[in-house]
Amino acid sequence: MRRTFLGELEEVVLLTVAVLGEEAYAVTVAQELDQKAGRAVGFSTVHTTLQRLEEKGFLSSEMGGATAERGGRRKRFFRVTAFGRKALREAKEAREALWSAMSPDTLQLMTR
Amino acid sequence: MERKPTSARSGAGTPGPARPPRWATRLLASWSHPDTREELQGDMLEMYAYWLESLGKPPADRKYALAAIRLMRPFARQKRSNDYSETYSFSAAMIQNYFKIALRNLLKSKTFSAINVLGLALGMACSLMIMLWIRDERAVDAFHTNNGQLYRIYMREYFSGKVQGVIWTPGLLAEELKKSIPEIEMSTPYSWTNPQTFSVGNKIHKQATNWASADFFKMFSYKLLQGTPEGALRDKSNIVISRNMAEAFFGSAEAAMGKAIRYDNRKEMTVSAVFENIGTNSSLQFDCLMTWDAYTDDNGWARDWGSTDPLTFFKLRKDADPAKVATKMLHLLDKTNRDAGKPYKTQLAMQPFHEYYLNSNIKDAKMDGGRIEYVRLFSFVAVFILLIACINFMNLATARSSRRAKEVGVRKVVGAMRSMLAGQFMGEALLIATLSAILAVLLVALLLPAFNSLTGKQMVLPWSEPMFWGIIAGLLAATGLLAGSYPALFLSSLNPVRILKGALKFDSSSVWVRQGLVVFQFGLSVILIVGMIIIYRQVGFVQNKNLGFDRENLVYFPIEGELFKKYDILKAQLTQVAGVKEVSHMTANPASNGNGTEGITWPGSDPNDKVRFTPVGVGYNFTKTMNLQMADGRDFSKDFPTDSSGVLVNETAVKVMGLKDPVGREINWGRSKIRIVGVLKDFHFQSLHTAIRPLIAYLAVREPQGSVIVRIQAGKTPETLTAIERICKKLNPNVPFTYAFTDQEYARQYQSEQVVGKLAGYFAFLAIFISCLGLFGLAAFTAEQRTKEIGVRKVLGASVAGIVGLLSKDFLKLVMMAIVLASPVAWYIMKQWLQGFAYQIDIEWWMFVLAGVIAVLIAVFTVSFQSVRAAMVNPVRSLRSE
């Protein structure tokens, strides 16, 4: 079985889309990352990542919601697919497995 | 639901400077990925507003430009399919789909496909065969290279306001034409082809012989194997023979050149040329030609302007104007003594030679009609039968359209336009037509030998001719378009909403059209059946009609060679033979006598009114041998020496002359007086195409000419014939004995009618068969559609007979209507055909009834085949599934 590798940025973007729910499109994702995650991610990077995630099947998209400030253009809303959710869950589990495998000393050291 | 970006601020009141750099926007508009271009541009505008608010204009501009540059995808192709993709009907996928669907439909209902293909194939095969026949008929005489310049003369005789056409011309005319009309370059007389005896050593054969002028081979393009056109008929002693004749006498064409051949055991002729055997594509048929001068040496009367014998052909100069020549020749005969002392004027007219074969009848002194009528008739038949086959196709296709209706609905809903659907169904029709055409060509190839033997032709399929393929392609296109047009228009007009809702009700107009087509189809069939019945009856009538003489057991053979002088010995010996009852002789022969004379006058005859009598020179015993009845007076008898100037006339002649008490009356023939000694009851001495003409029989006992007629005893034919042959061989050793039976010869005159009758029979059968194929299909379809209804009816107690009646009734109504409508048309057409006979059968009501009954029976049989099957089905089976 082919396992699609979920990169770190991809994981973050995917999570953001999941957080935003119905509101998720390139602009909201970029602003969310800018404000909440405090990372300097360029808009073009966000856009490209979203495209890639859709190509890989983690996201599905749908057009809609044209507004005047967009020059009447429609938005492409993204939604996490079942496959995307599974990938997020697996990434989280892998991380938690690593966390839980940490010795209590090290863990203490890290939380201090 | 309106979704707003979380913190975008660009209200309506915000002043103008909030504009990203225009070059970057343009870059985005034209170089970004085409799949995402729309939302990208919108997103970027929103982002710009966000940056503007949070960072200020210069960084916002910078960020915007940078992102625009980084989002350039100059080599990207559109991957995501457009939401409104265009279907276009000639894309490979669609065409593939059309073929797939067409094939599936063909295979899904094998019976219907078979009916369609078979019906169309039969129709096409029939048309193809008729086309081949017409092509062959039209090709007759087309091989002459001078065709445009060749003409034939015929005469119009005017008398007392009437006009009569005559194709036989004076023998001197050919030479006179060349002398008097400068535009006429060449001319030739051409007599009646008849068998003559030739011998070389001890080889004796009869050959079809004719006579012509030296111009003959220069005018006509008969291929010479030996000799030249110029030298072929230069000298009186020349004879030109066919390859067959050369091979029969000399072994080969080369060996024949310059050799001597004995004609009629009295003249030595020299072979001056050999021509290739004449094929069926020539209307002139002969095995050998001698010169016209040699003919006039033997037949002195042919040098007289007053007598008519040969046909006359001529060739115009290339630059000549036919209309001018026609006016010039009109009164050409005035300067001759042709009409001298006669009450009529003769004018000349001309007919293009290539029209001669198809237009050989004279009607009102014009060349009109003849075989061309059969060409026309069969062209109509070809079109009719093809039409019937096409109607089958249309009917079945529309009737079964409910099967295709869902498909049409779905196609329409996903965007098929009407023209595309029409194209699709038309294409399917063409596909089926193509299959049928292939089958038709195979059928024709298979049936052509039989067709050839029926029509007496030697047609082959002209594979190598582009014309042939053109015809097939034309036939295919015509059939496909005609057959496909109605289904295509009908199916493509269906309303998708109604179809997909599941209720496809045919509106009354489409049902009407379908029923109309069935009526039309059966109407055509009825016309063909009536035609067949009438042709059969007429041919039978002609063959069995009482001719006024007994044509059974009447043998005749030509007087030739030494028989001219030995007739008396011959007669004496023949009467000794056990099976011979009577012997006599006559000019011409008993089956056909087309001679004519106009010199008869009688007391009180109108000098301006010319009556053409048919003269016949006879021997004693003529009436007894022929079994003719006397109406008045007596037969010729040796007891009356004055009978040498006596004549017998027939009743028609008496009527024409208007004599009250004819026997003993004196009348004039030219300048000599003759006396009527007896009146014969009318009898037919020509085919029934012509009415009985006035006949005048005179004694021609001295050196009789024409034929010996022998009445033989019934049942003793073979031994009597051998005895006669033995006697002739002994008396006339240099001439092969040939004889003919009067009844057979008589029947031969109706050969073309018999062929037409047979063909009409076949075509009628075919038409009916194809119509029934269609009816069969329709009946099957109706029965299938009404399965549930039949089930319910049976459950409620309907009988099988009742259901069969119910199902058949509708079709019978149509067939009845067809009969009613077609009968008058058939009557009119056949009335026209019968005009060609002087003696016709009456068209009677029972013929139409018979045709109707045949049509109804066949229709009932066809329909009940399906309806009985439908009625027998156990209702449980038909009602179980819903």
From TrEMBL, chain A:
Pfam families hit by this protein: PadR
Occurrences of domain Transcription regulator PadR N-terminal (ranges): 19-90
Domain of life per record: Bacteria
Molecular functions per Gene Ontology: DNA binding
Keyword annotations from UniProtKB, A to Z: DNA-binding
Name recorded for this polypeptide: DNA-binding PadR family transcriptional regulator
Naturally occurring in which organism (per UniProt): Dyadobacter fermentans
From TrEMBL, chain B:
Segments of skewed composition (Low complexity): 7-21
Source domain of life: Bacteria
Key words of the record: Cell membrane, Membrane, Transmembrane, Transmembrane helix
Region feature Disordered, mapped onto this chain: 1-21
Pfam families found in the cross-reference section: FtsX, MacB_PCD
Regions crossing the membrane: 114-134, 377-397, 425-448, 468-491, 512-536, 759-783, 811-830, 845-865
Record domain ABC3 transporter permease C-terminal: where: 380-496, 763-872
Residue ranges of every copy of the MacB-like periplasmic core domain listed in the record: 113-329, 564-722
Membrane topology listed for this record: Multi-pass membrane protein
Subcellular locations according to the entry: Cell membrane
InterPro entries: ABC3_permease_C (IPR003838), MacB_PCD (IPR025857), Macrolide_Exporter_MacB (IPR050250), Permease_put_prefix (IPR047699)
PANTHER family: ABC-TYPE MACROLIDE FAMILY EXPORT SYSTEM PERMEASE COMPONENT 2, MEMBRANE COMPONENT OF TRANSPORTER-RELATED
Name of the protein in question: Permease
Species per Swiss-Prot/TrEMBL record: Dyadobacter fermentans
